[in-house]
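Archive entry: two folds, one per protein. Generate the first.
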Amino acid sequence: MSHILSAVAWPYANGPRHIGHVAGFGVPSDVFSRYMRMAGHDVLMVSGTDEHGTPILVQAEREGVAPQVLADRYNRVIVEDLAQLGLTYDLFTRTTTRNHYAVAQELFRQVHANGYMIEQTTVGAISPSTGRTLPDRYIEGICPICSYPHARGDQCDNCGNQLDAAELKEPRSRINGETPIFTETEHFFLDLPALADAIAAWLETRSNWRPNVLNFSRNLLEDVRPRAMTRDIDWGIPVPLAGWEENPGKRLYVWFDAVVGYLSASVEWARREDLKTGGDGSMNAETAQRWREWWNDPMALSYYFMGKDNITFHSQIWPGELLGYNGEGSLGGEPGRLGHLNLPTEVVSSEYLNVAGEQFSTSRGVVIYVRDMLSRFQPDALRYFIAAAGPESSDADFTWEEFQRRTNDELVAGWGNLVNRTATLVHKNFGEIPTPGERSTEDRELLELTQAGFTRVGDLVRVQRQRAAIGEAMRVVSEVNRYVSQQQPWTLKTDRERLGTVLHTMSQAVADCSRLLAPFLPHSSDQVHDLFGVPGPLAPQPVIEEVTDLDDATRAYPVITGDYRLGETVGAWDRVDVVPGTPMDKPSPIFTKLTDEAIADEIERLKG
C-alpha cells in the first residue's frame, strides 16, 4: 500500500463550470483515485474552489454584490455539480477559509526567510477611467515573442512563454478595451533563477510523464525570470510581513495561494478527521497531523490533475515554492514548521476539450455547463465520453452527434444490452443465479479473459492512459457479448444443466465487467453490482456536508467528502464471485438511449 495524493485543480468560483473543465481536471482525477483505492492504496483526493483574484472582483461589481457573496454562491453551485458527477473528494473546500490563509502565509514567510522572495520595483497597469490596478490577466495584446494577437499580460497561451503586461504590443484592457497606464509599484517576486537548477534536476527524474507535459515543462527553463507573487488588489490574502500585512492594497497573487490549496486542503481534511475522533480540530492535535503521511513521507506519491493552460503553475511555480520552502535552491535554507514538503510525482495535464470545433467561451455563448448536462443526461454518459474520447494527450472535440453515437452504440447497445440480456435470461429461466455444472473450454477461456482484464486495465490507469484503459474494458465487454452470441443460451431450454452453466458464466463475466468499469462509470456499475447481488461494496458516491470554518465560527460552507474504505465502502480491484441462488429481479435498462429529437434540441440550444 502506498500513500497517494490526488491533487485536483481548483475550479474558479466566478461562475458555473462547463464540461471542458471537468474533462481536464474532474473525471481523470476521479477515475485514477477510484482505481487506486480499489487497488489497496491510501488515497487523499483534495481540491476546492479558487476564490481570490480580479475576476471575482469584476464579476461581483457587475452583479452589484460583495466578492465573498459571489464566491459563496458559485462555491455551492460547483460543489453540487461535482458531487452529482460522482467525484470522490476526501475534501473539496475553498480558498477563503482561515485555515487556507494560515497555510498560505506560512509558505510565503518561509520562502521569504530562505531568501527566495525578493522585493523589486516593477511596472503595474492602471485603468485610466477608474484609477484601479489592472492585473496582468486582464490585459491583452500582441505577444512580443510569437506575435499572437490575444496574449495575456502574464502568459501567452499560443507559445506558452511567461510575459509582463508592459511587454505586450498594443496592450488593452479586457474589461473595457482602453489602453492601460503603466506606473511603478513594489512587489515580491519568487526568485525562479535561484531555484532553476533545482527545478531542472527534479524534472530530469520525471521520465514517465506524458511527453507533451514534460517537454513543455523543460522548455519553461529556457527563459527563467523572477515571477511576481504579490498584487495591487484588495481582495485576497494579506502579505504576512511587517509593513505589508496592514496595507489594504497589497495581497498575495491568487496563483500563489491557489496552488498552496493542495496542502491547506490536506491540513483541513486532517483537522476535520480529528474532530470526528473527539479532538478539538487544532493543527497540533495528533490526528490532525495525518496530512504529513502524504506530504512529509518521501515514499508517498502525488499526482496533480489539470488542463494544459495550468502546466506552468504546477511544473514550475508550485515546485519552486516547495523547493524555496524546503531551502533547496541555490541560496540554501531550511524547511519551516510544516517540514520537508514533497514535490509532485507527476503533473497529469490534459489538453483542451472543444465543442463543435470551437473553444469553449462563456462570453461568446459557446458553452455547455455541467449542471445543464447533468439535468438532462446520465452522469455516466458524460463520464464515458470524457474517458473514451476526451483530451488526454491532444485536443478533442465534443459534438452532440458523437455524444449520441457513443452513448447509444457503445453504452446502450454494447454494455447495457449485455447486462439487460443476461439478467433477463436468468430471471426468466431460473429466477436466481443458477449453480453451474462442469464448464466447457469456452466458459473457462471467457472467465480467464475477464480476470486478466483487471491487470490490463489497472496497468493502463496507473500510468494515466485512461482512454486505452476504458477501451480495454469495453473490449472485454465485446468478448462477453461474442460469447453470448456463440453459446445462444435461448436455445438451451431443454438442457437445464448447460443453460445454468452458461448463465452463471455470463453473470460472473458481467460482474467482472462492472468492476472493471467502476472507476469510469461508478453510478451504473453500482446498479449492476446490486442487480446481480455481488457480495460486498463497489463504488461509493461522495456526499455534501455543511460545515463551519475551523477557525471562524461565523462562517459556514458546503464541502464534498465521503467514506472510501476498502472492503467497507469500496470494492477490491479483483473478481468477486457471484453467488448461486441469489434472486434475480426483472431488470430495467441501466442506460437511456438518446433520441434524435433530444439531440436536435441540444444543438439548437447551443446555437442559441
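Generate the second and append.
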Amino acid sequence: MLEALTLPIIVGVSGHRDIHPGAVQAVGAHVRDILSALSSLYPDNLCVLSALAEGADQMVAETALELGLPLVCVLPMDRVAYRATMTDDDARRRMDALYDHPRTALRFALPPVEAPDQGDVLQYEQLGVFLARQSHILLALWDGTDPDPRSRRNARPRSEKRGGTAHVVSIRTSGEFGDVGVDMFRASRIFSSRLPRLELARCGPILQINTPRATATQDAVAQAGNVRWWSDLSTEQAGGKLPDLRAEPLWETLTVQSLARTWAEILRARMPPDFRFICEARAALAEIRASAPHLCHESAGYLMPAPPDVSSSKPKEASGAEAPGLVAQDPNLGRVRDIFAAADTLSSQSQQFLLGDWAPGLPWKRSAPGRTRLGSLFWFAAAVPLSAICFEVYCEFGKNPALLAGYAGILALATGFYWLRVRRRQWQNLYQDHRALAEALRVQFFWGLSGVPVSVSDNYMRQHEGELGWIRLALRGPSLLAMASALRRTAVPRQGVRQHWIEDQRIYFDRRIRQYKNAFRFSQSAVRLLIGALVTVVVGLLAAQMILGRELSEEWPEWAREMPSVIIGVLPALAAFFLAFRELRLFEEHLHAYGQAASVFDHARRQSEDLEDMLQKNPGDPFVEEEWRNLMIVLGKESLAENAAWIQTHRAHPVTAKLG
C-alpha cells in the first residue's frame, strides 16, 4: 500500500463529530459521489487522510475504503488516549477497524505538545494545522458556522474551538499568522516554525459539504449536502493566473445533480494544473523504475549504500554501517529512498540528454550505463563553428553550393533537434524539476533518519509559486512517510547521518568546485587564446596588405589569399563554442553556490562532531539531543534554499538551439 503514497493527491478530512441523524444519508451520498468523482480524475493518485474521529472522519474513511482508496490515519494523540476521548463504544470499534484495516496505507499519532495547563487543546490545534498544510484538497463536513471569526478577534489567535473544522478552514483560507498562536509551534515537534505573515505559497482547494450538527433546526437539515468550493490555486482555464487571496470572494456554490459523472465534470474544471503535474510526475517515476531498475538501484546508493552483511554484529548504538540496516527495516523510509532514486535517475538521464557528461575542461569519464558523454548542448554549441566554417569556405572558395547546403543543414538540424526532441520531450524541465524533487527528498530522507518529523513541503519553494509550485505540493505525500518514520524512531544513527549526508555532500561539493574551477579556467584560456589568434591574424593581414599596396598578390595561391578571411570568420565562432559551455553550464554561478554549500556542510560537520562528543560523555542529554535536532533542521533548510536558488538560476538560462 505504500506505493499509493509515491506522489499522491491527498484529500484531508475535517468535520463535525455530532452530525444530525436526519442529515447522515444526504451527507454520506455526497461524500461518496465526490470521492468517486475525484477518484475518476486521479485514479492512481488519490488517497484520504483522516484522524478517525467519530462522525464525519469515520464516515469519509469508511467510504474511501469501500471505494478502494488508500487511507492514511493520523491521530491527534496516542491511540489509547484518543480512544478514551470517544464516549461511544461503536465509535471506538469503528476507529479500531479503520486504523487496523489492511488497506490503510499509513498510520501514526502526532507527538505530544508539551504545554502546561493546555490539556488536549494544543493536540487538536496541532492536528488542524497539520491537515491544513498536508492536504491537497480539504474536505470539510461543516455547517459553515464559525464561533470565533477573525472579524471578532481583531487579528488575535483563536481562543474557541481550536483545532475544530472552522479553525482548519480559517487557517486554510486566511493563513496561520492571525489564527494560530506561536505557543503551539514552539512546543510542537512536527513544525519548525509558524508560516510568515506575508506567506506566498498557496495551500489548495476546500470542498465543503454542508453538514448540520445534531442540534440544528429542520431548516438547516434541509440544506444538508449543499456543496461549496474554495481555492487559492489557479485552474486549467485560468491559464496559470493565481486568484486573489481574499477568502470570501473565492467561495463558490456548486449546484449539480448527484451523479459521479457530473461531479467529475464540475470538479475537473476547477482543479489546478499542479495536480496534473503531480500525476504526470508519478507516472514518469513509475516508468523509469520499470525501464531502468539498475540505474534506480545505483541512485539509491548515492543516498544510502546497501545494508551490510546481516551476519556481522554491531553494537546497539547506531553506527554509520548500521544506518543502511535501519533503513532496510523501515518500509516508510525505504519508500522515500525509492522515490528519491527514481527522481534522481530521471533527472540524471534528462541531464545526460541535455548537457551530457562532458564539457571542455571537465574530466573525460569512461562510458557507463545511463550516461552520455556528449549531450545536446555540445552539438548546439558545435553548430556555431561548423556552420561558420561552411559559410566562410563557401564565400571564399568558389561558392560551392554543397557548402551552402551544409551551412543551412547544420542550422536546420540543430533547430529541428531542439524542437522535436529537446523541447518536445521536455528534457530541460525533467532535468531541473526532478532534480529539485530528488534534492528535497534527500533532505526529507535524512530528516526522517535523524528523528526529525518535519515536512519538507513546509520549507521548500515557498517563494517560487507558478510553474514550480507543484514540486512543493508533490512532496506532501513522501513527507508523511518520513514523518511517520521519524516519530517511531527510537535510535538515531548519528554517525550514519554524518557520513552519508553531511560528509558525502561536503565531499561532493568540494569535488564539483575543483572540476568547475578547472572547466572555467580552461574555457577562459581557450577564449583568450582564440581572441589572441584572431587579433594576430587581423594585424598580420592588415600589415601584409599595407606592405603590398593594400592588395594581396595574385601570384599567391588562392588558399593563401582567402584563408585569412576564413580564419577571421571562424575564430569568433570557435570562441562562441567555449563561451556556450561557460554560460549554459553556469560555471561561475556554480562556483559561488557550491562554495557556499561546501562551507555550510563543513560547518555542519564540525558542529555534529562536537555534539557527538558531548553525547558520548553525557548519553541521552536532552539539551544536546535538541541541539542535534535543530542542527538537522537548519542544515536541511539551507540545503533546500541552495537547491531552490539553483533551480531558479537554471530556469533563467535554458539550453536552446539559438546558438546555432
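Annotation attached to the second fold: The radius of gyration is 30 Å. The longest strand covers residues 9-15.
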